[in-house]
């Protein structure tokens, strides 16, 4: 179903994650002295992948999502959470192509997804 509310002047790409914190959230500072919190959420796909032709089934894979938050109120909350806490996160994401001429083995030479924390984080 589509919303019947008036359209907005921007598009949106959002990712919803339900998983566990991979480590305690860390307070960091940008080059311009703006504080942010970086944290990692682990998710495991369920159900597991379909069976192989021989009938065996591969294990579900864990995916690690690296997220940053620039929201002061949320940052205070995030810093109080510990590794292993189950969380629900809404994050905006941006897909960036590799930098031209960068070494393909380096992060700059690979396609990257950047996740920016939205306004919701709940622990479950």
TrEMBL record:
Q: Does the keyword tRNA-binding apply?
A: no
Per the UniProt entry, the signal peptide is none
The record's keywords, sorted A to Z, are:
DNA-binding
Cross-referenced InterPro entries: NA-bd_OB-fold, Primosome_PriB/ssb, ssDNA-bd
Query: One GO term of the cellular component aspect?
Result: mitochondrial nucleoid
Domain of life, source organism: Eukaryota
Q: Does the keyword DNA-binding apply?
A: yes
Molecular function via GO: single-stranded DNA binding
Q: Which GO terms describe its biological process?
A: mitochondrial DNA replication
Question: Which named protein is this?
Answer: Single-stranded DNA-binding protein
